[in-house]
Amino acid sequence: MRRAAAALAVGLALPAAAAAQAPVAPPPPVAAPASPILTIDQDALYRDSAWGRRAQAELEARGNALAAENDRIVADLEAQDDALTALRESLPPEEFRARAEAFDAHVQETRRERDLAARALLAEADADRTAFLRAVLPVFGAVMAERGALVVLDRRTVFLSADAIDITGAMIARIDATIGDRPRPPAPGEAGEPDAAPEGPESDGGNGSPGFVPEAPGGAPPEGNPASEGSGDTGGLPSLAPGAPAQ
Fold first, then answer.
1. How many domains does the chain divide into?
2. Suppose 67 and one of 140, 179, 199, 217 were both cysteines; which one would form an S-S bond, judging by CB atoms 3.0 to 4.6 Å apart?
3. pLDDT tens for residues 20-44?
4. Does 148 map to a domain?
């Protein structure tokens, strides 16, 4: 009886062990739905791609350097302003007025130069985004062909859509794998070919330009210009914030 019971127990355990060790087949992959219309989050596409993250890190580093330089220039101008103010009682009024006017002109020119430097940084950021959109057009074409799509719309222009037709995540993965964080160098014979105009920005709400506009780094404006009192010019040191328009 004991032998029969033991044999029965072993016989019952063997199928259970075999079932536990049998490999479970993974579920079949879910194919992307075919749709003539796809949507994309254009801002997220650039921001979250390897290219966009690299560009934003570089822009932030250069913006910080520009702001630090602005701070240094502001401190230097404030020191010049204090030195000129200290000479007010010892200089003839005409000479002091001439020095104050020259100093004001120097401040205005410095402000214009810093404004141009900030604008150049923003222009480079816009140009980088435009280059990104040009570079990813072939990737868009491949994904559209795979999914049988005829058009890709920016989600900002769509009132309501299903998440199933949004390809932002898939596009980021494909772009990172095929392009990476930088534009590829031109192949032999392509160097002299003109670049095609990007089609992506046309669907960003009608403004015809990419929507990514980083904030301009700024420096703190000084608090006044006592040297210019009575000179007939500006009543204080103008802001050296790069985003402020020159006067």
1. 1
2. 217
3. 444 445 444 445 667 899 999 999 9
4. yes
